Amino acid sequence: MSRGRNRGPKPHNKGQQEALLNLPVSKNEDVEVDIIGLTHEGEGVGRVDGYTLFIGGALPGERVRAKVLKVKKQYGYAKLTELVTASSDRIAPPCEIYKQCGGCQLQHWSYEAQLDWKRQHVVDNLERIGKLQVGEAEGITVHSTLGMTDPWGYRNKAQVPMGMSEEGGLIGGFYARNSHRIIDMDACLIQHDQNDEIVRHVKAIGRDLGVAAYNEETGEGLLRHVVVRVGFRTGELMVVLVTNGSKLPRVDAWVEAIRAQVPGVESICQNINTKRTNVIFGDVTKTLWGRDVIYDYIGDVKFAISARSFYQVNPVQTEVLYGKTLEYAGLTGSETVIDAYCGIGTISLFLAQHAQRVYGVEIVPEAIEDARANAALNGIVNAEFAVGAAEDVMPQWLEQGVSPDVVVVDPPRKGCDERLLETLLTMQPERIVYVSCNPATLARDLRVLEDGGYRVKEVQPVDMFPHTVHVESVTLLQRQ
Ligand code: SAH
Protein backbone atom coordinates (compact mmCIF):
# COMPACT_ATOMS: atom_id res chain seq x y z
CA MET A 1 0.00 0.00 0.00
CA SER A 2 1.45 3.38 -0.95
CA ARG A 3 2.00 6.01 1.73
CA GLY A 4 0.32 8.65 -0.40
CA ARG A 5 -2.90 6.67 -0.30
CA ASN A 6 -3.07 6.83 3.46
CA ARG A 7 -2.31 10.49 3.71
CA GLY A 8 -3.94 11.99 0.65
CA PRO A 9 -7.56 13.00 0.30
CA LYS A 10 -10.10 10.20 0.24
CA PRO A 11 -10.71 8.94 -3.29
CA HIS A 12 -14.20 9.78 -4.53
CA ASN A 13 -14.98 6.81 -6.68
CA LYS A 14 -13.92 3.30 -7.49
CA GLY A 15 -11.98 4.29 -10.61
CA GLN A 16 -9.80 6.58 -8.55
CA GLN A 17 -9.37 3.89 -5.92
CA GLU A 18 -8.19 1.41 -8.56
CA ALA A 19 -5.75 3.91 -9.95
CA LEU A 20 -4.39 4.61 -6.49
CA LEU A 21 -4.03 0.90 -5.81
CA ASN A 22 -2.04 0.71 -9.03
CA LEU A 23 -4.09 -2.19 -10.35
CA PRO A 24 -3.22 -3.06 -13.95
CA VAL A 25 -6.92 -3.36 -14.88
CA SER A 26 -10.05 -1.40 -14.08
CA LYS A 27 -13.72 -2.18 -14.06
CA ASN A 28 -15.38 -2.46 -17.51
CA GLU A 29 -12.01 -2.59 -19.25
CA ASP A 30 -11.58 -5.06 -22.09
CA VAL A 31 -8.50 -7.21 -21.71
CA GLU A 32 -6.82 -9.97 -23.69
CA VAL A 33 -5.33 -12.63 -21.50
CA ASP A 34 -3.80 -16.13 -21.47
CA ILE A 35 -5.51 -18.71 -19.28
CA ILE A 36 -2.95 -20.51 -17.15
CA GLY A 37 -5.11 -22.63 -14.86
CA LEU A 38 -8.53 -23.50 -13.52
CA THR A 39 -9.79 -22.78 -9.99
CA HIS A 40 -11.40 -25.48 -7.87
CA GLU A 41 -14.72 -23.92 -8.88
CA GLY A 42 -13.94 -24.34 -12.57
CA GLU A 43 -13.18 -20.73 -13.51
CA GLY A 44 -10.28 -19.96 -15.81
CA VAL A 45 -7.33 -18.18 -14.21
CA GLY A 46 -5.67 -15.42 -16.20
CA ARG A 47 -2.85 -13.01 -15.30
CA VAL A 48 -2.51 -9.41 -16.42
CA ASP A 49 0.86 -8.02 -15.31
CA GLY A 50 0.89 -10.36 -12.36
CA TYR A 51 -2.71 -9.51 -11.39
CA THR A 52 -5.11 -12.48 -11.26
CA LEU A 53 -8.42 -12.47 -13.10
CA PHE A 54 -11.00 -15.23 -12.76
CA ILE A 55 -12.87 -15.80 -15.98
CA GLY A 56 -15.81 -18.21 -16.02
CA GLY A 57 -15.98 -20.49 -19.07
CA ALA A 58 -12.33 -19.98 -20.10
CA LEU A 59 -10.06 -23.03 -20.22
CA PRO A 60 -6.34 -23.53 -19.55
CA GLY A 61 -4.24 -22.97 -22.65
CA GLU A 62 -6.69 -20.51 -24.18
CA ARG A 63 -6.20 -16.88 -25.09
CA VAL A 64 -9.38 -14.92 -24.55
CA ARG A 65 -10.84 -11.45 -24.55
CA ALA A 66 -12.75 -10.56 -21.42
CA LYS A 67 -14.55 -7.62 -19.84
CA VAL A 68 -13.52 -6.84 -16.27
CA LEU A 69 -16.55 -7.03 -13.97
CA LYS A 70 -15.11 -6.54 -10.53
CA VAL A 71 -11.70 -5.66 -9.13
CA LYS A 72 -10.36 -6.34 -5.67
CA LYS A 73 -6.93 -5.68 -4.27
CA GLN A 74 -5.51 -9.14 -4.96
CA TYR A 75 -7.70 -10.39 -7.80
CA GLY A 76 -10.68 -9.63 -9.98
CA TYR A 77 -13.44 -11.19 -12.05
CA ALA A 78 -14.03 -10.85 -15.77
CA LYS A 79 -16.58 -12.08 -18.28
CA LEU A 80 -15.43 -14.06 -21.29
CA THR A 81 -16.35 -12.13 -24.45
CA GLU A 82 -14.32 -13.82 -27.19
CA LEU A 83 -12.11 -16.84 -27.68
CA VAL A 84 -8.97 -15.60 -29.40
CA THR A 85 -7.35 -19.04 -29.38
CA ALA A 86 -9.52 -21.90 -28.20
CA SER A 87 -8.12 -24.93 -26.41
CA SER A 88 -7.92 -28.06 -28.55
CA ASP A 89 -9.68 -29.77 -25.63
CA ARG A 90 -12.68 -27.44 -25.82
CA ILE A 91 -15.83 -29.24 -26.92
CA ALA A 92 -19.47 -28.28 -27.44
CA PRO A 93 -21.24 -29.13 -24.16
CA PRO A 94 -23.66 -31.98 -24.92
CA CYS A 95 -26.31 -30.69 -22.51
CA GLU A 96 -28.70 -28.08 -23.89
CA ILE A 97 -29.20 -26.34 -20.57
CA TYR A 98 -25.58 -26.51 -19.40
CA LYS A 99 -25.19 -22.73 -19.17
CA GLN A 100 -28.40 -22.04 -17.28
CA CYS A 101 -28.17 -24.94 -14.86
CA GLY A 102 -24.78 -24.81 -13.17
CA GLY A 103 -25.00 -28.40 -11.90
CA CYS A 104 -22.02 -29.33 -14.11
CA GLN A 105 -19.03 -27.01 -14.60
CA LEU A 106 -16.73 -28.84 -17.02
CA GLN A 107 -18.92 -30.07 -19.87
CA HIS A 108 -17.16 -27.72 -22.30
CA TRP A 109 -13.90 -29.60 -21.71
CA SER A 110 -13.04 -33.04 -23.13
CA TYR A 111 -13.34 -35.83 -20.59
CA GLU A 112 -9.63 -36.67 -20.98
CA ALA A 113 -8.70 -33.08 -20.13
CA GLN A 114 -10.99 -33.15 -17.09
CA LEU A 115 -9.26 -36.27 -15.79
CA ASP A 116 -5.79 -34.79 -16.35
CA TRP A 117 -6.80 -31.60 -14.55
CA LYS A 118 -8.21 -33.53 -11.58
CA ARG A 119 -4.86 -35.30 -11.15
CA GLN A 120 -2.94 -32.05 -11.57
CA HIS A 121 -5.20 -30.33 -9.05
CA VAL A 122 -4.23 -32.98 -6.48
CA VAL A 123 -0.53 -32.61 -7.34
CA ASP A 124 -0.65 -28.80 -7.04
CA ASN A 125 -2.29 -28.99 -3.61
CA LEU A 126 0.15 -31.62 -2.33
CA GLU A 127 3.08 -29.48 -3.43
CA ARG A 128 1.80 -26.04 -2.44
CA ILE A 129 -0.13 -26.74 0.73
CA GLY A 130 1.38 -30.05 1.82
CA LYS A 131 4.95 -29.14 0.85
CA LEU A 132 5.21 -32.70 -0.44
CA GLN A 133 7.41 -33.83 -3.26
CA VAL A 134 5.56 -35.50 -6.10
CA GLY A 135 7.60 -37.38 -8.67
CA GLU A 136 8.25 -40.55 -10.58
CA ALA A 137 11.77 -41.42 -9.40
CA GLU A 138 11.67 -39.87 -5.96
CA GLY A 139 8.68 -38.61 -4.05
CA ILE A 140 5.04 -39.53 -4.06
CA THR A 141 3.35 -41.22 -6.97
CA VAL A 142 0.12 -39.56 -7.98
CA HIS A 143 -1.57 -41.90 -10.44
CA SER A 144 -3.68 -40.90 -13.42
CA THR A 145 -7.29 -40.25 -12.46
CA LEU A 146 -9.47 -43.34 -12.74
CA GLY A 147 -12.34 -42.15 -14.92
CA MET A 148 -15.49 -43.77 -16.26
CA THR A 149 -15.66 -45.59 -19.58
CA ASP A 150 -19.04 -43.97 -20.08
CA PRO A 151 -19.09 -40.78 -17.98
CA TRP A 152 -22.83 -40.10 -18.41
CA GLY A 153 -25.99 -41.29 -16.68
CA TYR A 154 -24.01 -42.11 -13.54
CA ARG A 155 -26.23 -40.70 -10.79
CA ASN A 156 -28.58 -43.06 -8.96
CA LYS A 157 -30.57 -40.33 -7.25
CA ALA A 158 -32.55 -37.39 -8.67
CA GLN A 159 -33.96 -34.68 -6.41
CA VAL A 160 -36.07 -32.41 -8.52
CA PRO A 161 -37.67 -29.20 -7.24
CA MET A 162 -41.22 -28.56 -8.46
CA GLY A 163 -42.72 -25.27 -9.58
CA MET A 164 -45.49 -23.79 -11.70
CA SER A 165 -45.14 -22.53 -15.26
CA GLU A 166 -46.39 -19.08 -16.28
CA GLU A 167 -49.54 -20.81 -17.54
CA GLY A 168 -50.02 -22.42 -14.15
CA GLY A 169 -48.99 -26.02 -14.96
CA LEU A 170 -46.73 -28.21 -12.84
CA ILE A 171 -43.10 -28.13 -13.91
CA GLY A 172 -39.93 -29.50 -12.36
CA GLY A 173 -36.26 -29.20 -13.06
CA PHE A 174 -33.57 -27.08 -11.52
CA TYR A 175 -33.01 -23.65 -10.07
CA ALA A 176 -31.63 -21.16 -12.57
CA ARG A 177 -28.06 -20.20 -11.66
CA ASN A 178 -27.90 -17.87 -8.63
CA SER A 179 -31.66 -17.82 -8.23
CA HIS A 180 -34.60 -19.81 -6.97
CA ARG A 181 -36.56 -19.65 -10.21
CA ILE A 182 -37.37 -23.18 -11.36
CA ILE A 183 -36.66 -24.10 -14.95
CA ASP A 184 -38.42 -27.13 -16.37
CA MET A 185 -36.14 -29.95 -17.43
CA ASP A 186 -36.86 -33.25 -19.10
CA ALA A 187 -33.43 -34.84 -19.14
CA CYS A 188 -30.26 -34.46 -17.12
CA LEU A 189 -27.37 -36.16 -18.87
CA ILE A 190 -25.53 -37.23 -15.71
CA GLN A 191 -28.70 -38.80 -14.32
CA HIS A 192 -29.58 -42.47 -14.87
CA ASP A 193 -32.03 -42.52 -17.85
CA GLN A 194 -34.67 -44.19 -15.79
CA ASN A 195 -34.62 -41.43 -13.16
CA ASP A 196 -35.30 -38.82 -15.83
CA GLU A 197 -38.08 -40.89 -17.30
CA ILE A 198 -39.74 -41.43 -13.94
CA VAL A 199 -39.61 -37.74 -13.09
CA ARG A 200 -41.28 -37.00 -16.45
CA HIS A 201 -44.06 -39.47 -15.60
CA VAL A 202 -44.53 -38.13 -12.10
CA LYS A 203 -44.79 -34.56 -13.38
CA ALA A 204 -47.45 -35.64 -15.91
CA ILE A 205 -49.36 -37.52 -13.22
CA GLY A 206 -49.23 -34.44 -10.99
CA ARG A 207 -50.58 -32.30 -13.84
CA ASP A 208 -53.41 -34.80 -14.49
CA LEU A 209 -54.33 -34.77 -10.82
CA GLY A 210 -54.20 -30.97 -10.73
CA VAL A 211 -51.54 -30.75 -8.04
CA ALA A 212 -50.08 -27.35 -7.22
CA ALA A 213 -46.35 -27.05 -6.63
CA TYR A 214 -45.07 -25.52 -3.43
CA ASN A 215 -44.18 -21.86 -3.68
CA GLU A 216 -41.15 -20.89 -1.62
CA GLU A 217 -42.17 -17.27 -1.34
CA THR A 218 -45.76 -17.74 -0.17
CA GLY A 219 -45.25 -21.07 1.60
CA GLU A 220 -48.35 -22.36 -0.26
CA GLY A 221 -48.84 -25.26 -2.64
CA LEU A 222 -48.29 -28.95 -2.02
CA LEU A 223 -45.57 -30.71 -4.01
CA ARG A 224 -42.04 -29.57 -3.14
CA HIS A 225 -39.71 -32.15 -4.62
CA VAL A 226 -39.83 -35.43 -6.45
CA VAL A 227 -36.99 -37.71 -5.41
CA VAL A 228 -36.20 -40.85 -7.37
CA ARG A 229 -33.63 -43.50 -6.47
CA VAL A 230 -32.54 -46.47 -8.52
CA GLY A 231 -30.47 -49.47 -7.48
CA PHE A 232 -28.02 -49.87 -10.36
CA ARG A 233 -27.38 -53.53 -9.63
CA THR A 234 -30.87 -54.60 -8.57
CA GLY A 235 -32.91 -52.32 -10.85
CA GLU A 236 -35.20 -51.50 -7.93
CA LEU A 237 -36.84 -48.08 -7.96
CA MET A 238 -38.12 -45.72 -5.29
CA VAL A 239 -40.30 -42.66 -5.80
CA VAL A 240 -40.62 -40.09 -3.00
CA LEU A 241 -43.09 -37.20 -3.11
CA VAL A 242 -41.99 -34.45 -0.75
CA THR A 243 -45.07 -32.52 0.30
CA ASN A 244 -45.83 -29.37 2.21
CA GLY A 245 -48.37 -30.96 4.58
CA SER A 246 -49.36 -34.49 5.51
CA LYS A 247 -52.49 -34.74 3.39
CA LEU A 248 -51.96 -35.95 -0.17
CA PRO A 249 -55.31 -35.67 -1.96
CA ARG A 250 -56.16 -38.61 -4.26
CA VAL A 251 -53.38 -40.70 -2.85
CA ASP A 252 -54.82 -43.89 -4.40
CA ALA A 253 -54.80 -42.31 -7.85
CA TRP A 254 -51.17 -41.28 -7.32
CA VAL A 255 -50.13 -44.79 -6.34
CA GLU A 256 -52.07 -46.42 -9.13
CA ALA A 257 -50.68 -44.10 -11.79
CA ILE A 258 -47.08 -44.43 -10.58
CA ARG A 259 -47.32 -48.21 -10.45
CA ALA A 260 -48.82 -48.31 -13.93
CA GLN A 261 -46.25 -45.99 -15.47
CA VAL A 262 -43.11 -46.96 -13.58
CA PRO A 263 -42.40 -50.68 -13.99
CA GLY A 264 -39.94 -51.92 -11.40
CA VAL A 265 -41.08 -49.50 -8.71
CA GLU A 266 -40.68 -51.20 -5.31
CA SER A 267 -41.37 -48.31 -3.02
CA ILE A 268 -43.57 -45.21 -3.17
CA CYS A 269 -43.11 -42.84 -0.24
CA GLN A 270 -44.31 -39.47 0.92
CA ASN A 271 -42.03 -37.25 2.95
CA ILE A 272 -43.60 -34.35 4.80
CA ASN A 273 -41.74 -31.07 4.97
CA THR A 274 -43.70 -28.01 6.12
CA LYS A 275 -40.67 -25.94 7.06
CA ARG A 276 -39.73 -22.71 5.26
CA THR A 277 -36.32 -24.05 4.32
CA ASN A 278 -34.43 -25.24 1.28
CA VAL A 279 -33.53 -28.50 3.02
CA ILE A 280 -35.29 -31.10 0.88
CA PHE A 281 -36.56 -33.62 3.42
CA GLY A 282 -38.70 -33.22 6.51
CA ASP A 283 -38.60 -35.54 9.52
CA VAL A 284 -41.58 -37.77 8.70
CA THR A 285 -41.68 -40.31 5.88
CA LYS A 286 -44.74 -42.46 5.13
CA THR A 287 -44.71 -45.46 2.84
CA LEU A 288 -47.67 -45.09 0.49
CA TRP A 289 -47.12 -48.39 -1.27
CA GLY A 290 -44.57 -51.22 -1.29
CA ARG A 291 -41.41 -51.39 0.80
CA ASP A 292 -39.80 -48.70 2.97
CA VAL A 293 -36.48 -49.37 1.27
CA ILE A 294 -34.90 -50.46 -1.96
CA TYR A 295 -31.78 -52.61 -2.07
CA ASP A 296 -28.53 -52.24 -3.92
CA TYR A 297 -25.02 -53.69 -3.80
CA ILE A 298 -21.53 -52.26 -3.55
CA GLY A 299 -19.24 -55.17 -4.31
CA ASP A 300 -20.80 -58.14 -2.48
CA VAL A 301 -22.32 -56.03 0.25
CA LYS A 302 -26.07 -55.44 0.14
CA PHE A 303 -27.44 -52.09 1.30
CA ALA A 304 -30.95 -51.07 2.28
CA ILE A 305 -31.63 -47.54 1.07
CA SER A 306 -34.50 -45.56 2.54
CA ALA A 307 -35.89 -42.25 1.27
CA ARG A 308 -33.48 -40.22 3.37
CA SER A 309 -30.44 -42.53 3.66
CA PHE A 310 -27.11 -41.17 2.63
CA TYR A 311 -25.82 -43.45 -0.13
CA GLN A 312 -23.07 -42.77 -2.65
CA VAL A 313 -24.64 -41.31 -5.81
CA ASN A 314 -22.23 -42.83 -8.33
CA PRO A 315 -22.31 -46.55 -7.59
CA VAL A 316 -19.99 -47.55 -10.44
CA GLN A 317 -17.13 -45.32 -9.28
CA THR A 318 -17.84 -46.05 -5.62
CA GLU A 319 -16.74 -49.61 -6.29
CA VAL A 320 -13.57 -48.30 -7.90
CA LEU A 321 -12.92 -45.98 -4.94
CA TYR A 322 -13.56 -48.65 -2.31
CA GLY A 323 -11.60 -51.20 -4.33
CA LYS A 324 -8.56 -48.90 -4.09
CA THR A 325 -9.25 -48.31 -0.40
CA LEU A 326 -9.26 -52.07 0.16
CA GLU A 327 -6.07 -52.52 -1.85
CA TYR A 328 -4.27 -49.77 0.12
CA ALA A 329 -5.54 -51.21 3.39
CA GLY A 330 -3.57 -54.36 2.52
CA LEU A 331 -5.73 -56.67 4.64
CA THR A 332 -4.91 -60.32 5.19
CA GLY A 333 -7.79 -61.20 7.50
CA SER A 334 -6.06 -60.69 10.83
CA GLU A 335 -6.21 -56.89 11.09
CA THR A 336 -8.09 -54.52 13.31
CA VAL A 337 -9.42 -51.61 11.26
CA ILE A 338 -10.98 -48.27 12.19
CA ASP A 339 -13.24 -46.53 9.67
CA ALA A 340 -13.57 -42.91 10.83
CA TYR A 341 -16.34 -40.77 9.31
CA CYS A 342 -18.04 -44.00 8.28
CA GLY A 343 -21.48 -42.72 7.14
CA ILE A 344 -23.80 -45.73 6.76
CA GLY A 345 -20.80 -48.04 7.13
CA THR A 346 -20.19 -48.62 3.45
CA ILE A 347 -16.40 -48.77 3.71
CA SER A 348 -16.54 -50.60 7.08
CA LEU A 349 -18.70 -53.38 5.66
CA PHE A 350 -16.69 -53.51 2.45
CA LEU A 351 -13.52 -54.07 4.52
CA ALA A 352 -15.06 -56.30 7.21
CA GLN A 353 -14.96 -59.36 4.97
CA HIS A 354 -11.18 -59.06 4.82
CA ALA A 355 -10.36 -58.03 8.39
CA GLN A 356 -10.52 -59.49 11.88
CA ARG A 357 -12.53 -56.61 13.30
CA VAL A 358 -13.77 -53.23 12.08
CA TYR A 359 -14.79 -50.22 14.17
CA GLY A 360 -16.81 -47.48 12.47
CA VAL A 361 -17.57 -44.03 13.88
CA GLU A 362 -19.92 -41.40 12.52
CA ILE A 363 -21.58 -38.28 13.92
CA VAL A 364 -25.10 -38.74 12.45
CA PRO A 365 -27.11 -41.20 14.59
CA GLU A 366 -29.47 -42.28 11.75
CA ALA A 367 -26.47 -43.19 9.61
CA ILE A 368 -25.18 -45.48 12.36
CA GLU A 369 -28.63 -47.11 12.62
CA ASP A 370 -28.37 -47.84 8.90
CA ALA A 371 -24.81 -49.13 9.32
CA ARG A 372 -25.91 -51.60 12.01
CA ALA A 373 -28.93 -52.70 9.97
CA ASN A 374 -26.75 -53.20 6.92
CA ALA A 375 -24.25 -55.26 8.92
CA ALA A 376 -27.12 -57.50 10.07
CA LEU A 377 -28.54 -57.69 6.53
CA ASN A 378 -25.22 -59.11 5.36
CA GLY A 379 -24.60 -61.33 8.37
CA ILE A 380 -21.47 -59.33 9.19
CA VAL A 381 -20.69 -59.81 12.88
CA ASN A 382 -17.16 -58.42 13.09
CA ALA A 383 -18.08 -54.76 12.61
CA GLU A 384 -19.20 -52.47 15.41
CA PHE A 385 -20.35 -48.88 15.17
CA ALA A 386 -20.29 -45.86 17.45
CA VAL A 387 -22.17 -42.57 17.23
CA GLY A 388 -20.10 -39.47 17.94
CA ALA A 389 -17.44 -37.14 16.67
CA ALA A 390 -14.52 -39.24 15.46
CA GLU A 391 -12.13 -36.92 17.34
CA ASP A 392 -13.95 -37.79 20.61
CA VAL A 393 -14.55 -41.49 20.03
CA MET A 394 -11.08 -42.42 18.75
CA PRO A 395 -9.34 -41.33 22.00
CA GLN A 396 -11.89 -43.40 23.94
CA TRP A 397 -11.11 -46.45 21.83
CA LEU A 398 -7.42 -45.81 22.40
CA GLU A 399 -8.02 -45.75 26.15
CA GLN A 400 -9.99 -49.00 25.91
CA GLY A 401 -6.99 -50.61 24.26
CA VAL A 402 -8.21 -50.71 20.66
CA SER A 403 -5.04 -50.92 18.62
CA PRO A 404 -5.75 -50.64 14.89
CA ASP A 405 -3.42 -51.94 12.20
CA VAL A 406 -5.16 -49.81 9.60
CA VAL A 407 -7.20 -46.62 9.93
CA VAL A 408 -9.36 -45.37 7.08
CA VAL A 409 -10.52 -41.76 7.22
CA ASP A 410 -13.11 -40.29 4.84
CA PRO A 411 -13.83 -36.83 6.27
CA PRO A 412 -16.13 -34.11 4.92
CA ARG A 413 -14.66 -31.20 2.92
CA LYS A 414 -13.14 -29.49 5.93
CA GLY A 415 -10.83 -32.46 6.46
CA CYS A 416 -9.81 -34.24 9.68
CA ASP A 417 -10.05 -32.62 13.08
CA GLU A 418 -6.66 -31.82 14.61
CA ARG A 419 -7.42 -33.99 17.63
CA LEU A 420 -8.17 -36.91 15.37
CA LEU A 421 -4.79 -36.54 13.68
CA GLU A 422 -3.09 -36.37 17.09
CA THR A 423 -4.88 -39.54 18.16
CA LEU A 424 -3.76 -41.25 14.97
CA LEU A 425 -0.16 -40.36 15.73
CA THR A 426 -0.53 -41.86 19.20
CA MET A 427 -2.30 -44.99 17.94
CA GLN A 428 0.46 -45.58 15.37
CA PRO A 429 -1.39 -47.84 12.93
CA GLU A 430 0.83 -49.48 10.33
CA ARG A 431 -1.16 -47.91 7.49
CA ILE A 432 -3.52 -44.98 7.11
CA VAL A 433 -5.81 -44.77 4.09
CA TYR A 434 -7.13 -41.27 3.52
CA VAL A 435 -10.20 -40.95 1.28
CA SER A 436 -10.66 -37.28 0.43
CA CYS A 437 -13.16 -35.08 -1.40
CA ASN A 438 -11.02 -31.96 -1.00
CA PRO A 439 -7.37 -31.90 -2.12
CA ALA A 440 -6.61 -28.75 -0.09
CA THR A 441 -7.54 -30.19 3.31
CA LEU A 442 -6.03 -33.53 2.28
CA ALA A 443 -2.69 -31.81 1.65
CA ARG A 444 -2.89 -29.93 4.97
CA ASP A 445 -3.59 -33.15 6.91
CA LEU A 446 -0.93 -35.17 5.08
CA ARG A 447 1.66 -32.60 6.15
CA VAL A 448 0.71 -33.20 9.81
CA LEU A 449 0.93 -36.97 9.38
CA GLU A 450 4.27 -36.73 7.54
CA ASP A 451 5.68 -34.58 10.34
CA GLY A 452 4.38 -37.18 12.78
CA GLY A 453 6.38 -40.00 11.21
CA TYR A 454 4.19 -41.29 8.35
CA ARG A 455 5.23 -41.43 4.71
CA VAL A 456 2.78 -40.70 1.92
CA LYS A 457 3.28 -43.54 -0.56
CA GLU A 458 0.80 -43.04 -3.35
CA VAL A 459 -2.32 -41.17 -4.28
CA GLN A 460 -5.07 -42.37 -6.58
CA PRO A 461 -7.56 -39.77 -7.84
CA VAL A 462 -10.93 -41.32 -8.75
CA ASP A 463 -13.51 -39.44 -10.79
CA MET A 464 -16.72 -39.78 -8.80
CA PHE A 465 -18.52 -36.86 -10.46
CA PRO A 466 -17.65 -36.50 -14.17
CA HIS A 467 -18.26 -33.02 -15.69
CA THR A 468 -18.20 -31.39 -12.27
CA VAL A 469 -15.25 -29.87 -10.41
CA HIS A 470 -15.34 -32.43 -7.58
CA VAL A 471 -11.99 -34.15 -7.05
CA GLU A 472 -11.93 -37.35 -5.00
CA SER A 473 -8.81 -39.34 -4.15
CA VAL A 474 -7.43 -42.17 -2.01
CA THR A 475 -4.02 -41.87 -0.35
CA LEU A 476 -1.88 -44.54 1.25
CA LEU A 477 0.35 -43.61 4.19
CA GLN A 478 2.79 -45.99 5.83
CA ARG A 479 4.31 -45.74 9.30
CA GLN A 480 8.08 -45.18 9.11
N1 SAH B 1 -17.36 -43.08 4.39
C1 SAH B 1 -18.73 -42.81 4.05
C2 SAH B 1 -19.17 -41.36 4.25
C3 SAH B 1 -18.16 -40.27 4.08
S1 SAH B 1 -18.84 -38.65 4.05
C4 SAH B 1 -19.01 -43.27 2.64
O1 SAH B 1 -18.11 -43.55 1.89
O2 SAH B 1 -20.18 -43.39 2.28
C5 SAH B 1 -18.27 -37.99 5.59
C6 SAH B 1 -19.09 -38.39 6.78
O3 SAH B 1 -18.50 -37.83 7.94
C7 SAH B 1 -20.53 -37.92 6.77
O4 SAH B 1 -21.35 -39.04 6.93
C8 SAH B 1 -20.63 -36.97 7.98
O5 SAH B 1 -21.87 -37.05 8.64
C9 SAH B 1 -19.52 -37.49 8.86
N2 SAH B 1 -18.93 -36.57 9.84
C10 SAH B 1 -18.76 -35.23 9.74
N3 SAH B 1 -18.06 -34.75 10.78
C11 SAH B 1 -17.78 -35.82 11.59
C12 SAH B 1 -17.06 -35.97 12.82
N4 SAH B 1 -16.51 -34.94 13.42
N5 SAH B 1 -16.95 -37.20 13.34
C13 SAH B 1 -17.50 -38.28 12.70
N6 SAH B 1 -18.18 -38.18 11.55
C14 SAH B 1 -18.33 -36.97 10.99
TrEMBL record:
<dbReference type="InterPro" id="IPR002792">
    <property type="entry name" value="TRAM_dom"/>
</dbReference>
<feature type="compositionally biased region" description="Basic residues">
    <location>
        <begin position="1"/>
        <end position="13"/>
    </location>
</feature>
<keyword id="KW-0479">Metal-binding</keyword>
<feature type="active site" description="Nucleophile">
    <location>
        <position position="437"/>
    </location>
</feature>
<dbReference type="InterPro" id="IPR029063">
    <property type="entry name" value="SAM-dependent_MTases_sf"/>
</dbReference>
<feature type="binding site">
    <location>
        <position position="362"/>
    </location>
    <ligand>
        <name>S-adenosyl-L-methionine</name>
    </ligand>
</feature>
<feature type="region of interest" description="Disordered">
    <location>
        <begin position="1"/>
        <end position="21"/>
    </location>
</feature>
<dbReference type="GO" id="GO:0070475">
    <property type="term" value="P:rRNA base methylation"/>
</dbReference>
<protein>
    <submittedName>
        <fullName>23S rRNA (Uracil(1939)-C(5))-methyltransferase RlmD</fullName>
    </submittedName>
</protein>
<keyword id="KW-0949">S-adenosyl-L-methionine</keyword>
<dbReference type="InterPro" id="IPR010280">
    <property type="entry name" value="U5_MeTrfase_fam"/>
</dbReference>
<feature type="binding site">
    <location>
        <position position="312"/>
    </location>
    <ligand>
        <name>S-adenosyl-L-methionine</name>
    </ligand>
</feature>
<dbReference type="InterPro" id="IPR012340">
    <property type="entry name" value="NA-bd_OB-fold"/>
</dbReference>
<keyword id="KW-0808">Transferase</keyword>
<dbReference type="Pfam" id="PF01938">
    <property type="entry name" value="TRAM"/>
</dbReference>
<dbReference type="InterPro" id="IPR030391">
    <property type="entry name" value="MeTrfase_TrmA_CS"/>
</dbReference>
<dbReference type="Pfam" id="PF05958">
    <property type="entry name" value="tRNA_U5-meth_tr"/>
</dbReference>
<keyword id="KW-0408">Iron</keyword>
<feature type="binding site">
    <location>
        <position position="410"/>
    </location>
    <ligand>
        <name>S-adenosyl-L-methionine</name>
    </ligand>
</feature>
<feature type="binding site">
    <location>
        <position position="341"/>
    </location>
    <ligand>
        <name>S-adenosyl-L-methionine</name>
    </ligand>
</feature>
<keyword id="KW-0004">4Fe-4S</keyword>
<feature type="active site">
    <location>
        <position position="437"/>
    </location>
</feature>
<dbReference type="GO" id="GO:0070041">
    <property type="term" value="F:rRNA (uridine-C5-)-methyltransferase activity"/>
</dbReference>
<keyword id="KW-0411">Iron-sulfur</keyword>
<dbReference type="InterPro" id="IPR030390">
    <property type="entry name" value="MeTrfase_TrmA_AS"/>
</dbReference>
<dbReference type="GO" id="GO:0051539">
    <property type="term" value="F:4 iron, 4 sulfur cluster binding"/>
</dbReference>
<feature type="domain" description="TRAM">
    <location>
        <begin position="24"/>
        <end position="82"/>
    </location>
</feature>
<keyword id="KW-0489">Methyltransferase</keyword>
<comment type="similarity">
    <text>Belongs to the class I-like SAM-binding methyltransferase superfamily. RNA M5U methyltransferase family.</text>
</comment>
